[in-house]
User: Fold this.
Amino acid sequence: MEGYYLTTISYFKNCSTQASVHYCVNGLQDTGTDAPAGEITQMVLEANYAWHAGCWNTYSAGTEHEGFVSNPAWYTQTMYQASAGLQKHIVEKFGIAKDRNHIVGHGEWQNAAWRTYASANLGIDPNCNTHTDPGPNWDWTRFMNLITSANSGNRIGMARTSTGQGYWIVASDGGVFSFNATFYGSMGGQHLNKPIVGMAARPQGDGYWLVASDGGIFSFGNAGFYGSMGGQPLSQPIVGMAVTQSGNGYWLVAKDGGIFSFGDAPFYGSLGGQGYTDIVGMAPAYHAGGGNGYWLVRSGGAMYSYNANYYGGNDAGSGIVSITSSGDAGYIQVRNNGNIYAYGGVCYNGGANDASNPFIGIARGPSNCGYWIVKKDGAIFSFGDAPFRGGANF
Assistant:
C-alpha cells in the first residue's frame, strides 16, 4: 500500500480515486483504534475488474497489503497467513495454478524470467506496469508455502494468550498460526523426527512450546528449554503437555498416563504402569497464591487429579480429544464432534455437535465463561466471551 490499512480503504472508497483493488489486508494493529492484524476487506467483487496494475487488470485479481516496501516490520506472520488463505481461495475458485508464474507481485515485471513466461503463456504485456511492490522484503518462500501446503487437515491443537484475547493454532508439521497473538516462531518446514502433538504457552504470554510424540521439545520466545524425552525410550508416545504457573517448567504426559517433569514442575503422580492406553491430554491446575497441580483425561472423559480438586468426569463415553482448565476452579473437555463437558466453576456455553470434520483442541477465553474449539482443518468455533479472531482452515 505504501500506507496504512484503514487509510487505504478510505482512499479507495473516494469516488475521485482513479484506482481500485479487490482486497486489502492489514499487517499491524499499531493503535488501539486500528483494525486487527490480518483483517481483510473486500473492495471489488471478484466478478468485476479492479484497476491496480495497468494492462494486467483484466487478467488478475488484486490484493494490497498494508505497509511500506522499505520496512519489513509490516509484513507480519498474521498478514502472511491471512493473505495466503485469501490467495488459496482465489486460485482454487478460478482454477489458477499455485505457482510463482501465476501468483505474482506488482513488481514482477522486474523479473526477466517471468516476463518471458508471461509473454508466451499469459497473453499480457508484462512491461505495462511500473509498480515495485511488495518489494525485496516480502518473503515469497514463506507465502507460497502457506498457499501450496497440502496439510490444511493437519492441525492438532491450540493455546491461548495470557489475556485470552487471542490464540495460536499448531499443526503436526510444527507450523504455528497466530491470531491476535505474537508469532514467536515455528518448526514449519523443518525436519522433525516425529510429528508435533501438542502446544502450551507461558502464562505470561511471551512464548510457547511445541512437543512431539517422541517427547522432543521446541521452545520459542521466552519459553525456556528445561529438558525433553527426545531420544529416550517411551512405553507409549507423548500426547500432551502443561506448563507451571511460573512459566519455568512443564509436564509431559504419555498415552499410558506416564508423567515426565521438567524445570520447576513437581511430580505429583501418574497413571503409568496401570494398563491405560487412552490418555488424550492434560491441563494444569494453578492454585491461588502459587502452587501447581494437573489433571489427566482419558478418551471417555474420566478425570484423574494430582494436587488438584476433582470436579467430575466420564460423561462423554468416548471421543474426548482435549481439555482446558481455569486456575484450579474447573476444567472443560471437548469431544471430537464438538460436544462440550464443563466441570467445576466454569461455564457451559454450548458446543458445535458437528461431526463433518473432527475437533482436535480447546482453549479457554478471557474468563471462565468462554472457550474456543478448533477442528482438524483449523476452523475455529467461539463460545461465551471468547472472541473469534480467525481460523487456520486454509
